[in-house]
Fold this sequence. Notes:
Elements (H helix, E strand, L loop, with lengths): L5 E2 L36 H10 L7 E4 L6 H8 L3 E6 L2 H10 L6 H22 L8 H5 L14 H17 L4 H17 L2 E3 L3 E3 L8 H19 L7 E5 L14 E6 L14 H6 L6 H9 L23 H17 L4 H24 L3 E12 L11 H11 L3 E13 L4 E12 L16
Parallel strand pairs: 1-9, 2-3, 2-7, 3-6, 7-8
Antiparallel strand pairs: 4-5, 8-10, 9-10
Amino acid sequence: MIALKATESVPAPIQDRCSPEINQMRAGDRAVHDWYRFVLSYPPHLVQHYLEKFGIEPGQQVLDPFCGTGTTVVECKKQGIASVGVEANPMAQFAGAVKVDWTPDSAALVAAAQQIAAESDRVLATEGDQWRELAPDSDRILLKHAKDKTSSISPLPLHKTLVLLEQIRRQATGGAGRHLELALAKALVSGVGNLHFGPEVGVTKAKPDAPVIAAWLQQVEQMAQDLHHVRSHESIPAKVHHADARQILQVLDPHSIDAVITSPPYPNEKDYTRTTRLESVVLGFIENKQQLRGFKEGLVRSNTRNVFKADTDDVWVANHPEIQRIATDIETRRIELGKTSGFERLYHRAVKLYFGGMAKHLADLRHCLRPGAQLGYVVGDQKSYLQVMIRTGQLLAEIAEGLGYEVIQIDLFRTRLATALREQMREEVVILKWSGQWPQHPYPFSHLPR
């Protein structure tokens, strides 16, 4: 294994790595970032730290290949740095793309929202008890409470939401419609729906009603205030592609990237498609089980719910001894405990597919990097299932080294409490460098043709 000592350098102002504040967004960073973001997203100050550490300047370009809701690309734009993101989740990609579009006029955005709100109130008053509903196929893929089958959103708030969405799409002109829809997505998950967010998203007690239009207007007004304050950086290039990070050559130009700051999924059995399910369904990004499956097929295989029979990413790590040992230990432990469910029998394979997918991503990424490019990958150790430790950062460093990257160091970002184990787990930033020189020997960990 690579003999690397994790450093304690991130971020300098916070010394207690167990403190939850280290991963929280600072009040001064909230503009634009807070339009819509994953609960467990890494904070903007982490991006600021690595932009400074890597010495990134205007005229260079930063990539986030697992863009999520756009923390890296938004922060780069705020700092005057060009950026590009890649994201396979259609709702998250939409959010990231809207968050780097600072062209709408603030006053015009609020005026349009007020007009749409008034028309929505009129429609709600005239339609009476004729509540609108989702199509049956769409309703089936919403998250439901396991016991009482409470849906992610109650009937009356859903009706109000669908009326409002219709009016946004009828009346909004230019690019403002996308911002107004993103504000609705934020309202859905921050109070309109029946969701709660912890380590996982879940369905809580049903709300008979919710102030949908008022909650949406509040989000729009915050957007308008932020747009006013960031206007000076409107022209800084930033784009978010809807694509699979394992197929990155389809969307990026060769030798175009100077730095990477990103956080890929962890091999943690977390179904990332659940996190955005309500807003994805309501806004029409996912309408049925077939589209949901297609969404899952575009993701790195970090959990058993997006493992498919035809998957082959594991060939990339077929000769990696530690990954193979971990997979064998997981399967041995499963058999010893008599665990026989479908996901339990797939877990050892999901681990190999995860690291294989990351190897495929890192292999293709080399074509897009400029010589001297610096990379930071935020990843976390895992021990959540069957008590088999997965040192994610260490393993990714070994995979990267086999592909010709220089492994600079592994920074400790924070420790986090694993809910199931009540143990502190490491979350790290793997720092790599691409010299521009391809390795003389073939990648040693695969069964690919040499």
